[in-house]
Write a structure and sequence with these properties.
Two copies of one chain form a homodimer.
Chain A: H1 14-25, E1 27-28, H2 31-37, H3 47-69, E2 74-83, E3 86-93, H4 103-108, E4 112-113, H5 129-141, E5 145-150, E6 158-166, E7 171-180, E8 188-196, H6 206-216, E9 221-225, E10 231-234, H7 257-266, H8 272-279, H9 285-295, H10 308-320, H11 335-347, E11 354-355, E12 359-360, E13 364-366, E14 369-379, E15 390-395, E16 398-400, H12 408-415, E17 436-444, H13 461-513, H14 521-528, E18 530-539, E19 544-554, E20 559-566, H15 574-578, E21 582-585, E22 590-598, E23 603-611, E24 623-626, E25 633-634, E26 637-638, H16 655-673
Parallel strand pairs in A: 2-9, 15-17, 18-25, 24-26
Antiparallel strand pairs in A: 2-3, 3-8, 5-6, 5-8, 6-7, 9-10, 11-14, 12-14, 13-14, 14-17, 15-16, 18-19, 19-23, 20-22, 20-24, 21-22
């Protein structure tokens, strides 16, 4: 980076010679030229990836536009193979459309956009994606992109044009610009371009991207026609738009001096105090005064006159003053259910053993940009256990399919000691092994991607810390499940031994003495002295799952008790309510059942069907009892006080038992140890 | 990315409203604003990393400039801590200097440089690095960067100035621009800036970066003063500049249509044929004619008139015509010795067991940019064996310390099944475990970095394939070493048994019969019937290592033989030549030794000292024999025919032995199997 003008003095020594030689070469690089020569930075580094990038940019924009205008997104994606590596890509949406005059810049100019300066969660933020796609098409095939758009209103016409980017000056070159009638199209935009590419299937395919997108954007309908002509429709799962993310003002926290100066010099406000109060979020009159006093800047000073020293002092003051965290309605997390559905879909029918409770972290902010992290884990069952765990990454509801290794999500996962949470991991570092799938979603007003290709999230310490937090919380719920399973197995084993060994002993001794074999059921009951709850589950068909609890009364007295569990509400079938043992269920799906007067050495059964996608997410071991002294129960925990619904009072007085119970438990122990 | 002008018709429906609302927000984004808001893309995502990035950019530029002007680089790096997170960074070089007028643009304007369009290997290529560093300093501390520069020549004065970047328009703002006398400085440039940062030590520290840089740039002297004031000097290891990489013309291979069009419209040539011949490398008159015929474009057509269809046809034609691979003098690989030294340095004194022969691949080209890949592996000894292997990455002689997971190098390593090559690796995928360090260097006229931060190389399929090739070749040499060791151990074990068991038997039977114990040495010799060569090595002091070969003649006849090995030439000490058994050594360090008339049941010794850094890289098991029937030798292989130097003819006629030999070997087997 050494330089000079062409007309400088003639070279002298070697060094001078070089200084001038280099100078002659020195020149400005247009941003388009830069990216043209560094396509990989935009994600265009292999033909297969390039094809995906284009679709991704277009679809992301379509979803953004629809959400901003309140239209439920209807997106159409079509890919036609023209030759070995030539494809025609067509994406159409029902968004608000683009007013004619600006169509060229939107598609034909890099670093041009409407969301760059906006502080709200959106998919496109850089003003690069779609024009880069158009450019890549131009460069690789020499063909222009064909754009059509219509904005709402009877008297509006649709416009279409061909666009090529002049990379030398980063400006659109438009041809065939004309109005037309877009039959049956009230409003929306379509882009069609020809590009070099390679269509692939599998983990990093366009199909996979669209499917993942549909999952975390259930309000969108996406129709996809692949090069073979096969059409897949990802139907709208809900008519309800996600809560619209609000635009906020910059939050002073973590702002750099340069930012402050820029804001100050561009503000419409006349005084520093007014500027601080009106141009930032969470700065009240009191706080503004406090900041200005601390920094020794006059409240009436002109913001335009703010100099670097003053702004340094203000930044320092901001760090000292306690300011409320940024508002969070600028974010729209995907939430519990969608996280579970996301995980479920990758399972493709495999039955897992356990869904850890998904976590959504309270928002924090980095460089004044609010962000929140969500995580979910699914474990065991039919998930293959040899390989590394599968990682699903999302940013602002966009699935990230490439650069896993570069992502803060992956790094956080690699730094957690998963052995503590029941997963295999050599040396407590690196991606863990085992039957698990981990999902993480980062939502922010500005996701810090590692490159313009938007494939991985950069490892800002603050961000990575939050991801780790979310993951650990999730992992804890997994761990406690695994512990519970382990405890259960142990006691199980012990009691089974009692049930097997005693009759054996009796039989043998009876034979030796030539006596009839005595009936031991009551003795066994006496020794066991528990109410045994045995959950089981089986699939009825693809959508239906039967769950049942067998309750054995291995105690000497009659028992009455209640069962409590939290069911995925949308999966509960009407039949359940008719079940005589069913009592009631609240909005959270917390259901109560009652078993009355269960005689010693007899058993009862509580069973019901769950129907629909989420049926599998219910953990049958997550069952609680009330109305009985928990020490007499095996296979269910005591109903926690904070469970929110009323259990059954313990009526029976168990003193006698309690005394007995201990020694007998001990007895059982001994037997168990054989 | 939807937009319009401010003055468009009033909103109608929701959609229109949005179209217009968005339109109002639509605007151009200055490249500086973009990077200001996306610092992480430039590598400025954590304070510690940011501090490193700045130093890296400045030092890379200094080395580039010095090499271009033929000055042996003298670089000074000083870091002072001003406050908690405020640092002053100073970098000075003895480069050609920058002519006064252009200093502002070089340091105060992004996307401005001299190497962007040049097709030759250099460190800086984007025209972003150093100005981004200046910008980051401005933004985080509000302080300008202070630049000084002087170009060679008595009548030249030095100039200094303060530079701040106006991010709104991406232009430098200069203050305090004045000439001064730079005492004792003939030519060179210094940059000083204040920045937010955090100084760390360890794997990703500035110290580590400078040390690695010094290793692969032995012609540079780097002086470093850390914030504690501790000065480290990485002295010049050679006065010889690396071969200067030549600038080449674009190679037609893999060129995109867009590239061709741009070249055609900018060329000075008047006809298509002249254009193809003069503006590209490897296009001869014949080839130019062939291409134009195939594409049906007239040789006399004006390049300026070339249209897209024609250029599509020309690109297609180029793919069909056989064109010579691009010239490679535009690249400068680091080579065998530096690779070994690079590996050695990370060892920090740990003694490895084996250095695999480094590999330098013949250059290929991607998108018309020539590139070559080098790889080296060091294994075993004191290298810790629990964790994953250590990976060292270099691009154009610059060490890459961040984003390992995003790098094509890492991906290639993860996709190789290292179990085949003797390393541990679960499922044959992922980073292998074991006592090994892997080094990879990618050199290219345009390294495809994944982002402007230049921390990882993008996974172009062509590039990744080459990296895998280099690694596999290297791994093979490792594997064959491991095999050799295994074979050796086995036979070793067997023969040791012979030597232990026989005397035992003899002793016992003698005792039982109350007879004196017979001397079995001749019997053992008869059974062994081998010349046993036992290499050993021990450290004399930090720089010296003693290597010796004990030669036992366990055969019935007198033996004369030669030993051959390839020594690291620079480590050979004069003493060696005086050794009576030493014959001669050639330029490659291939040395010959002779042992004459070694009587049965006696032994001789060949030993010498190696001195200096590379002493450890010599593999003592890499020894060959001649002048004797190899079936009678244990511990050395027969001298290969292509070894290049003459061995000793086999004189003795071994027929008798050969017959004997077999049954006795069999005998030995039996004993061995007990």
């Amino acid at each position: 980076m050494r330089s000079d003008e062409k007309d400088t003095a003639a070279p002298k020594g070697e060094g001078t010679a070089t200084a001038h030689r280099l100078a002659a070469k020195q020149q400005e690089i247009s941003v388009t030229e830069f990216f043209e020569k560094n396509k990989q930075i935009l994600g265009f580094d292999s033909r297969s990836k390039s094809l995906l990038m284009g679709v991704k940019e277009a679809v992301d924009n379509s979803l953004d536009a629809c959400e901003e205008s309140g239209f439920l997104p209807d997106v159409i994606v079509r890919i036609d193979r023209l030759a070995e590596e030539d494809y025609k890509v067509y994406i159409e949406d029902n968004g608000p459309g683009i007013v004619h005059k600006m169509m060229p810049n939107v598609f034909g100019r890099l670093l041009y956009g409407s969301r760059f300066h906006a502080l709200r969660q959106s998919r496109g933020q850089q003003g690069i994606g779609i024009s880069a796609t158009v450019m890549y098409g131009n460069i690789t095939t020499g063909k222009p992109a064909h754009i059509r758009s219509r904005i709402e209103g009877e008297d509006e016409v649709a416009w279409q044009m061909d666009i090529v980017i002049d990379t030398k000056i980063n400006r659109p070159v438009v041809t065939n610009d004309k109005a037309f009638t877009w039959d049956g199209k009230e409003h929306g935009t379509s882009v069609e371009y020809v590009t070099k590419g390679r269509y692939i299937t599998g983990r990093q395919s366009i199909y996979e991207y669209l499917r993942n997108t549909a999952i975390v954007n259930p309000h969108a309908r996406i129709e996809f026609r692949d090069p073979e002509g096969k059409v897949t429709v990802f139907e709208r799962a809900t008519e309800q738009m996600p809560p619209k993310s609000k635009e906020i003002k910059p939050h002073p926290e973590g702002m750099e001096i340069g930012d402050l100066l820029k804001y100050a010099h561009n503000t419409a406000q006349k005084t520093m105090k007014a500027f601080l109060k009106s141009d930032f979020s969470r700065i009240t009159d009191r706080i503004a005064t406090e900041i200005l006093e601390l920094s020794g800047v006059s409240p009436d000073a002109k913001p335009s006159g703010l100099d670097r020293d003053q702004s340094v002092r203000i930044i320092e003051a901001i760090a000292k003053v306690k300011i409320m965290a940024p508002p969070t309605d600028c974010l729209s997390p995907i939430g519990d259910t969608l996280i579970k559905k996301g995980l479920m879909h990758v399972l493709e029918g495999m039955r897992p053993e356990y869904y850890a409770t998904p976590v959504t972290r309270p928002p924090k902010s980095v460089n004044g940009n609010p962000f929140t992290v969500e995580a979910g884990i699914v474990y065991g069952g039919e998930i293959p256990s040899e390989g590394q765990v599968t990682i699903l990454r999302f940013a602002n509801r966009v699935p990230l399919l490439y650069q896993q290794g570069a992502c803060a999500v992956t790094k956080s996962i690699m730094e957690i000691d998963w052995r503590r949470y029941g997963l295999e991991q050599r040396g407590g570092k690196g991606i863990p092994f085992g039957p698990a799938i981990i999902l993480v979603h980062v939502a922010s007003t500005k996701v810090p991607f590692t490159s313009e290709g938007k494939e991985a999230v950069a490892s800002y310490p603050e961000l990575q810390a939050e991801i780790s937090q979310a993951l650990k919380l999730c992992a804890r719920s997994l761990k406690s499940h695994l512990n519970k399973m382990e405890r259960k197995q142990k006691t199980h084993a012990k009691f089974e031994i009692v049930q097997e060994i005693l009759p054996d002993l009796a039989k043998k001794s009876a034979e030796m003495l030539g006596r009839p074999v005595p009936d031991l059921s009551r003795t066994i009951t006496k020794i066991m002295n528990v109410v045994w709850i045995e959950p089981s589950s089986k699939r009825v068909d693809k959508r239906r799952r039967e769950v049942s609890y067998e309750i054995y009364n291995y105690t000497a007295q009659e028992r009455t008790l209640r069962l409590h569990m939290r069911l995925p509400r949308e999966c509960v079938t009407l039949a359940m309510f008719k079940n005589p043992r069913f009592l009631d269920m609240n909005d959270e799906g917390k259901a109560n059942w009652e078993v009355c007067g269960l005689a010693p050495s007899t058993s009862a059964r509580v069973s019901f069907e769950l129907e629909g996608e989420l049926a599998d997410t219910f953990d049958i071991d997550d069952v609680y009892v009330s109305g009985i002294n928990p020490v007499h129960v095996m296979g269910a925990e005591a109903l926690p006080g904070d469970w929110g619904i009323k259990g059954l009072e313990i009526t029976e007085t168990d003193e006698s038992d309690l005394a007995e119970e201990e020694e007998e438990a001990a007895e059982a122990e001994d037997l168990g140890d054989e």
